[in-house]
């Protein structure tokens, strides 16, 4: 039986052979289902902002979220990358788009949360967290 180190080295040898063109058979795993609405909500974006920011049509977003259509494999791949690392996608599509997506002229890590105090009618102050997309997040006490 091989040790974990030997198994890892075998795997690295396989990768090296594939990259050198000596071996075929590698195939990226693209999930069959992608929850577009969940990805968009995690980013705190409206459908319109999400479609404009990442280059999808607004109708496609609406159809995907409504379950009337399913994204094709290239779109699912892009959606997965957006879900895992939106900053990388924004930087690749347009280096200036990150600042535009968060509504700022300076470079800001993504996603952005801005804490703001709101005065209540009884003089009690409660904090509201706002996300990069302008939507309200959880209320803080």
How would you describe this structure to a colleague?
The chain has 141 residues and is of the alpha+beta class. It has a domain at 30-101: Orthogonal Bundle (434 Repressor (Amino-terminal Domain)), CATH 1.10.260. 47% of the residues lie in helices and 13% in strands. The chain is built from 7 helices and 3 strands, in the order H-H-H-H-H-H-H-E-E-E. It has helices at 4-19, 36-43, 47-54, 58-66, 73-84, 86-93, 97-101; strands at 113-119, 125-131, 136-140. It has a 3-stranded antiparallel beta sheet with strand order 1-2-3, with no helix packed on it. Strand 1 (113-119) and strand 2 form a beta hairpin. Helix 5 (73-84) packs across helix 6 (86-93). The longest helix is centred in the first third of the chain and has 16 residues, at 4-19. Residues 105-110, 112-118 and 128-141 have low confidence and may be disordered.
């Amino acid at each position: 039986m091989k040790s974990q180190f030997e198994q890892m080295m075998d795997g690295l040898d396989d990768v090296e052979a594939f990259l050198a063109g000596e071996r075929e058979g590698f195939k990226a795993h693209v999930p069959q289902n992608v929850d577009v609405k969940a990805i968009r909500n995690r980013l705190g974006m409206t459908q319109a902002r999400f479609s404009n920011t990442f280059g999808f049509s607004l109708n496609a977003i609406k159809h995907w979220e409504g379950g009337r259509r399913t994204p094709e494999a290239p779109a699912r791949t892009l959606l997965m990358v957006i879900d895992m690392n939106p900053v990388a996608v924004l930087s690749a599509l347009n280096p200036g788009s990150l600042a535009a997506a968060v509504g700022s002229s300076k470079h800001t890590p993504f996603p952005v949360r801005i804490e703001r105090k709101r005065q209540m009618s009884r003089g009690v102050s409660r904090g509201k967290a706002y996300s990069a997309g302008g939507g309200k997040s959880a209320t803080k006490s």
